[in-house]
Amino acid sequence: MNNQTWFISKCDRCGDQVFFYNILIKSLIETGNNIIHVTNEINSYLSHIIKGSVIFRYEISDSFEENILKFNKAVRSNKYIIIICPFIPYEETSNIILNDSKVVENWTIFLKNITVDVSICGTINPSWIDRVNCSMVSSQEKFYGLVDKPSQTVPSQFQKWSNYEVDNFIKIENEIDTPEIYFVKKILVKYKIPKPSLTHSLIPGDGKILFFIGASSIQRCYNYDSILRLGESLMKKFQSEIIFIYGPNEYELYSKSNSNNNSNHIYFESGQFDQLIEMISLAKLAFTHETFYYHLLNLYGVPHVLVSGGGHWKRFIYPNSISTVITNRLPCFNCDWRCPYDKSYCISEISEKALQYSLVERYRESNLGFKVYNSDTNIDLYDYTDNYVKESIHSNYIAKNNEERSKELIVKQEENEKIIVKLLEKQETINNLLLKNNEISLENDRFDDVRKSLMHKLSHMQYKLNIIYLENEKNKRSLELMGRVIDHKIKHSESNDH
Q1: pLDDT tens digits, one per residue of 280-318
Q2: pLDDT score, position 124
Q3: In the chain, which end has fewer C-beta atoms inside a 10 angstrom radius, N or C?
Q4: Per-residue pLDDT for 20 more than 70?
Q5: Are 420 and 411 a contacting pair, CB within 8 Å?
Q6: Is residue 124 within 8 Å of residue 3, measured between CB atoms?
Q7: Topology of the domain comprising 209-393
Q8: How confident is the model at residue 138 (pLDDT cuts 50, 70, 90)?
Q9: CA distances from residue 225 to 169, 230, 276 in whole angstroms, order as listed
Q10: Does position 83 have pLDDT exceeding 50, yes or no?
Q11: Which has the higher per-residue pLDDT, 403 or 466?
């Protein structure tokens, strides 16, 4: 449906915003709809990447009348409004604002004056502020996504103002699609809106290859020295300009590299979005982790190789034609980054050889299709239909990989006692995974059957040999006795003759 107004409340992280824009909002804009997007201050950069969007900052120092007047004026002249919400659900600063009853009341009245066609709580297991915002606006239909129970309780200050405990959640129970994609597909189908395109018309850039060093957490990052070696190998192979990009979380690494006056090492401050976007939009190829940069690469259609760990496996992956995803599959995948080991082996043990192969392959054919590789093999772990991922694990590879990995872990046990303890704790899990492989189980069963049969036959033969031996001994004793009797009879006969 066209020319509707959609209200979206999504007060979470930067990468999540771009991801949701890519899978839903872009389609809404392309079909002629108006968007009111509520988020927090950290996401004000969205105005740089969403063409035609404007920022509306709700001022807590103003009355609700003043805020409503300024907002209505902005709505009349713009199709995409980004409202900066004064409440941040995961930070202590919100507690201070919450204690001001006037601020709470004014925000409530402001939202209740907004009338839209559809309102969406854009986070799965939504935060309290997103639930409150969606429940307050006047709309014909409301959508909330939910995997389990909401992770946060609505503060008491808001409980008297809204029907915050909504019951019209879309329960996420689909096993093929990720929660977000499942949620979005339900909405798109209902309103007959085309799914966002997962293919891209590639625009030739300036030929640069970008290597994004970091992510929001060091846990998600590949080895720094390995990234540098990969960049240097591609530079030599293709004579291309390689740019290593650092963000605020990697300032120390940048300072170290910059001490050698390396002009191809670039640092971007949090507010330098225009420069960053310009560089991304012109790139030929990129290496990245599962972070904000990855979502930007997909937004601007830049071919890329993604290093993805198992923390949120598949949840934020776009199965499009310009993506190669590489990981090291482990039985602990989808741990929500609560890693059971002392480091993320799902990332750290991806080989440089595997990444080099993937980068070269993607460089030579940018639009070669969606690829997912497991560590240092070229076995594609996924089939995909209808532009969405459906898992299909290659069992023979899993068996081989587990055997090889077991050998590697044994070596590491000798080097690091801490790893020994943790691996021993997970040994049962590894054994269970191995037992799941039918071929291994069958071969083991067959071997056991043959071994038992042979042992039985050997035992039976030994038994027969023992019987023969005993019979021989018995016969020997009988013959000896018979000989003695004969000798006795002969002697007795001779004495009688005399």
Answers
A1: 988 999 999 999 999 999 998 999 999 999 998 888 888
A2: 83
A3: C
A4: yes
A5: no
A6: no
A7: Rossmann fold (3.40.50)
A8: very high
A9: 46, 9, 23
A10: yes
A11: 466
Residue in 246, 257, 250 with CA at minimum distance from that of residue 279: 246
Q: Where in the chain is the domain with CATH 3.40.50.2000?
A: 209-393
Question: Options 1.10.150, 2.40.10, 3.40.720, 3.40.50; which CATH number does 5-190 get?
Answer: 3.40.50
> Residue 201: which pLDDT band, with cuts at 50, 70 and 90?
low
Tokens standing for 488? 């006795």
Contact between 350 and 360 under an 8 Å Cβ cutoff? The reply is no
